[in-house]
Amino acid sequence: MGAVMTQLTNQDREKLLIKLLLELYSGQISEGALLRRLRKDVLGLNQEGYAKLVGVSRRTLSDVERDQGQLTMSVYAAVFKPLGLKPGLLPRSDRLLKSMISTLGQ
To answer: Quick check: 82 and 54 in contact, CB under 8 A?
Structure first.
């Protein structure tokens, strides 16, 4: 059961991506939870299928989704690339990040 495409429209996928990114930035979910939701809900792929797509082992993908292990930036780049995301620099301070997000909404 590798690729089972979901019935979301492109617009629905984008809305879900934005919603989940805002949850990530506000500290409601982790990077691993974000990846798992996008893999399943946007792409409709299981871990094995997605790991093959991005060129990592299923174990490595599982580690990313569980926020485990010492993972390199290249692994993060590989697993988020099909979702249109790349690793970036974000403030460590929640206050600064929330301030930045609210500024974007204005």
So the answer is: yes
Would you say residue 32 has pLDDT above 80?
A: yes
Rounded Cα–Cα distance for residues 56 and 52 (Å): 6
CB contact at 8 A, 64 and 32: yes
> 45 has which bridge partners?
3
pTM for this entry: 0.79
DSSP string, the chain: --B------HHHHHHHHHHHHHHHHTTSS-HHHHHHHIIIIII-B-HHHHHHHHTS-HHHHHHHHTT-S---HHHHHHHHGGGT-------S-HHHHHHHHHHHT-
Does residue 25 contact residue 36 with C-beta atoms inside 8 Å?
A: no
Task: In whole angstroms, give the CA distance from residue 34 to residue 2.
Answer: 20
Q: How far apart are CA 39 and CA 46, in angstroms?
A: 7
More confident residue, 7 or 100: 100
